[in-house]
Each structure stands twice: as structure tokens, then as C-alpha cells.
Amino acid sequence: MAIESQICPPKKPQGRDLEIPKLTLQEELNNNSDPNSNLKENIDPEKNSIMDKNITQDADQETTPLSLTIPTFEHVTMLPTPMTYTPLSPGGLALSPIIDQHLNIAKRRAGGTSKVPNIQHTNEFTQMRRDLDGLLEPQQRIVSELAPPPLSSPQRIVSLPTVTEEASSQSLELPIVPNNALVDLDSEHQEDFILTGYLLGQWDKPLQWKKIKKLGEGNFSDVLLYESFIQDDPNLIQVAVKRIKYPMELNDETFRNTPQYKDTISRLENSLTRELTVLKSLNHPCIVKLFGINSPIFLESKTPLRDFIKSHGLGLPPCDMIMSYCAGGDLLAAVTSCLGELDIWLIQRIFTELVIAVKYLHDNNIIHRDLKLENILLKYSLHDIVAMKDSPMFKRQNILELADFGLCKKIDEGEMCTARCGSEDYVSPEILMGIPYDGHLTDSWALGVILYALLEDRLPFDPPPNATSRQRSRATSHRIARFDWRWFRLAETDLDAKEIVENTLTRKNQRWNVNDLLESSFVKKELDTLLL
């Protein structure tokens, strides 16, 4: 049997992009706490028009693509009251609610085909409706990413990971700008194939690399493969360079005289320096490594952009982060290219290394806040990993690196976070609700989402297979707030990995932390064999 057949199933249909509108909730829902009751509300086309502003999918689509995510949720002001049920609720079975337990919400009908009788409105009511419709216009769905998506998936939108932090932090939120409003430093310097950079702490010894190809492209950064002219250090022969793209407005002379200019510069600087400071402090085999930078100013100054402008006049300095290169690409692309299924031994190995990496971060008081399939980089292709399985070195060599620390945060012991950030399919209910949260437990939640996705070949809060049009129209955040997930492929399978998902995709007071994950039988059995 060919190696590929050991890991790849038949291809499943792709989903379609969803846009995330604001959510509201009828007051009656707050009184429904019985998980066995059918939650209903009277169908009124005007009252419920706000509830069903969600963008629907075609009836033949079963899942949302794994790659759809957003970094901030400032537009979500109200959410459905979470169900009293969770997979591990006292007295309940470790199963998700039955399929019939859903809200009956009237859908807005398009065009003139609606059978709802016309209703006469006063001018005041009509104006109120216009105001509400304006507020509820679908917002662009935003994600953050490092590596490129698979060719078969829809084009993704990315954003620079800047967030509004607590009062004690200097990190600010960068306004979202259109894709065409950015300065692509790479396209501006098509003939600049030589990168001059410095290893950390060796500012007097410049090194040079030549550009090989572009690995990934996002709205605010590109990732490129560079090869060293000097072949004496195997770690530096090939490197991944994360090249920042700046908002175009920063190069607009008229914008420089506005109050927004200084604020935008400050937010961008905080994002860059936060990520670089954390990366510089990390040293773990399962975490991406920062080897150097193209200019020492980004590591020596807290305000590198403003300092550069003061000394050089107009223009912004290119920012190239020189990092370790993972030839296998990101985990999402790898799983998609192999048509969706991994052997359980490989899932166990990948997840164990990921837990080890997160454990290292948490032990150093760092929370990641953007754990997802796209940010897990494989050092080798899946084909090569399977071929290495029986090698004596397989247990001594890590196969992945955790990347993208743009949303990470160094916290004090016991500190609670309030920044509403992350990737929508992976964020916990408390982040969506805008309440203070424990970053360690939100990372645990994301780990549960990742493991579920690897086991089920779908995200846990996708619309269920064979869902009704009403279920498909419901926002992902709605299902997250209700803990509305269940097993499908593994529903009748007894697997110890399921215990991890059931204890992470649950309420925060019941949720496992990373130490609990390390003690789980699924992780512990693999961990005891590793010699990393």
C-alpha cells in the first residue's frame, strides 16, 4: 500500500465563507435553562429580523472551511445565553444536545416572495429599522495567518494581530484597512533579492541570504523563503522571513498631520515589539525560532518606526524577521492536501508536541491566544513523517513548531485578560462575551478545538452534517456560546482522545488546563516515549 493511502481518505466538499454579523437575543431565551426543553419563540418578522441577519450557506454545503477566522470581536455586543448543558454537566451524559433542541427563529425572506403580510409602520418605526439595519450590516470576516491556505480553499483575509489590551498594557488595536490599502514592500523592491540581516546580538556581523520563493501572503505580512550564501550553519541555510507590510496611509503626507497618524504608528509598533520581545525570549524545540532581524532598531527600540523617521526623514523601515523554516508547511494545508484524515498515531504525536509547547509557554507566563491549525508548522511533509515512523530517531526529533505570536501576552500570576482577540472558530465563550478570562484556559479551549478537528475532519462549531437551513444560517459564535458541538465520525468509537475534547470544550470552571492535558492517557502514553 502506498504511504499516501495510510493517511488520506476520500475528499469531502469544501464549505463557503461566512460573514459574522452582530447578535442579539430575545429576553425569553434567558429563562430557558432546561436542556431537554424545546426553546421556541413567536415568529414575528419584524422582531426577529435582527436575529437572522446572518449570512446563509447553500443547502448543499455541510461545513465551514477550517480556515475561516477573525482576530477581534468588538462588534459583537450581545450573545445567546449559553445552554445549561455542557458535555460534562453534572448529571448529564458526555454527549452533545439532541439535534431537535434549537431555537425557532423566523428567517428574513429575500425579494418579494415573502408570504408574511405587509405591516404599516410609522415614520418613527421605519427610521429605527433603518438605523438598526445600518448597524447590522455584515462586517468583513477577518483572520490572522502565517502560512498560505491550500489552493482548494477560498481566498482568506488576514489582519495584523493588534489588540486592545488591559489598562496595564500599552498594546492598542490597529484599525482594519482594506487589502489594497497596504504597502507591499516586496512588490516595491522586485529587484531586491538579497537580504542583509543580523543574528540576535551580533549586530557587527551582517549576513546575507538570497530570495528563493514566497511561502505565504497576507494583508499585513508576507512569508518568504531565503537561502544563505554561507553554508556552514545548517539552521541558517534556509530561513523563513516574515516581511511586514505597512498601511499605505502611513506614507501619505496629508495623513501625517492628522491625530490618527501617531495612534496608528503606536499601535503598529506595539504589535511588532510585543511579538519580537516574546520570540527573542523563547527556546524550545517545538516553538518557532527567531534567528535575527534585518535591522537592530526593531529589537533595541520600543518605538522603532518613529525613531527611524526622526533619523531618516520620510519613509518606513522594512521589517524582516528571520525565523526557522518548516518545510512541511502549516498543519491545515497538510491535512487538506491529504484529503482530511490522519492516522491516530500521528494525531497523537502532533497533539502531544503541541501540548508540550503550550506547557512551556504557560510555565513562562506567556499565553498564545491564537492557537489554530494554521499556526502549527510541520518540519517535514506528512509523507516523510510517515516514512520516519519506524526510525530510531523519530522519538528524538520534533516534527512541528508552534508559530505566530502576534497575539501572545506576557502575564502576571493570576492576571485576567480582557482583550477580545483570537480566531473565531477557536475562541472560547468567555472571550466572545467580553468578560475577563484566564488566558491559560482559553489556550486549553483552542487545543480542544484543534484535537477535535484532527479527529473529526471538521471544526466542532461548524453546522452539523445534514443541518437544516436555519441551523446553517446560525453564526459560529452562536454555537460557541451555547457549547453546541457533538461527535459524528467518532460517535460510536471508544477513544481516549475524546476525553480531552470533552474536558476542554466546556465551561471554564470545568475546563482542563495544560497540566491536566499532560496527565491525560492520550498524551501521557506518547509523552513517555519521546526523548525531545
UniProtKB/TrEMBL annotation:
Q: Which GO terms describe its cellular component?
A: cytoplasm
Q: Which UniProt keywords apply?
A: ATP-binding, Nucleotide-binding
Q: Where along the chain is ATP bound?
A: K242
Q: Classify the source by domain of life.
A: Eukaryota
Kindly name one Pfam family recorded for this protein.
Answer: Pkinase
- Tell me which PROSITE patterns the record gives: PROTEIN_KINASE_ATP, PROTEIN_KINASE_DOM, PROTEIN_KINASE_ST
UniProt record, GO biological process = negative regulation of conjugation with cellular fusion; negative regulation of transcription by RNA polymerase II; regulation of autophagy
Annotated ranges, domain Protein kinase: 209-523
Q: Name one GO molecular function term.
A: ATP binding
The protein here is known as Protein kinase domain-containing protein
The beginning of the lineage is: Eukaryota, Fungi, Dikarya, Ascomycota, Saccharomycotina
Gene name, per UniProt, is NDAI0K01480
